[in-house]
């Protein structure tokens, strides 16, 4: 599925196009708090792993496998994470922010070191930083924390530049759409958390 095709004025592959459509569906369902989003996330992550392997974005490729596991965990959390009730949208406390930022920094250091030393990627630091941030965003999403959307806004803006650099134009467009969707998600979930406070 590596043959090039034109879509929205960009050249892409059928696999990248399928991944694009699955990923947009995932985020749209996440905003609406539909647990089926996690199924779309699993399939999208599997297809994007192949796309990123071809682009030598090994951190992103590995991240897709982590996303598959995190999606299974997130699906369970959304259905059973509050005991006998479904998980509700809440905000991070100050200690939660501290742990999230510390985890992002540690992940960045470890991933960048690994990618720089053991792979042939030409963007080890960008790949490591964004991979670590994506892990933090996914964990916060799995626990229905409003702030997951802020993490995704930062990560997605930076991913647009990385994917343009790597020639993955359709995926760059996808992440630009993700920025808008993350902004929508942040506003929607902020309103939900405010009502429940």
UniProtKB/TrEMBL annotation:
InterPro entries: NMN_transpt_PnuC
Segments crossing the lipid bilayer: 6-29, 61-76, 97-115, 172-189
Keywords carried by this UniProt record: Cell membrane, Membrane, Transmembrane, Transmembrane helix, Transport
Chief localisation class: membrane
Subcellular location: Cell membrane
Membrane topology listed for this record: Multi-pass membrane protein
Family: Belongs to the nicotinamide ribonucleoside (NR) uptake permease (TC 4.B.1) family.
Protein's job: Required for nicotinamide riboside transport across the inner membrane.
Protein name: Nicotinamide riboside transporter PnuC
């Amino acid at each position: 599925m590596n043959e090039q095709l034109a879509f929205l004025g960009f050249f892409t592959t059928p696999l990248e196009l399928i991944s694009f459509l699955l990923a947009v569906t995932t985020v749209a369902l996440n905003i609406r708090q539909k647990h089926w989003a996690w199924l779309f996330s699993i399939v999208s992550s599997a297809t994007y792993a192949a796309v990123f392997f071809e682009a030598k974005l090994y951190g992103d490729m590995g991240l897709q496998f982590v996303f598959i596991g995190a999606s299974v965990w997130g699906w369970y959390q959304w259905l059973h994470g509050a005991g006998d009730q479904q998980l509700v949208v809440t905000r991070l406390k100050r200690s939660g922010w501290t742990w999230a930022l510390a985890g992002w920094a540690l992940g960045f250091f470890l991933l960048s070191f690994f990618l720089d030393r053991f792979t042939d990627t030409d963007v080890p630091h960008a790949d490591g930083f964004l991979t670590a941030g994506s892990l933090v965003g996914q964990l916060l999403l799995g626990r229905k924390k409003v702030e997951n959307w802020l993490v995704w806004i930062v990560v997605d803006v930076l991913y647009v530049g990385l994917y343009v650099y790597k020639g993955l134009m359709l995926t760059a467009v996808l992440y630009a759409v993700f920025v808008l969707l993350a902004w929508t998600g942040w506003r929607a979930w902020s309103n939900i958390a405010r009502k429940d406070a």
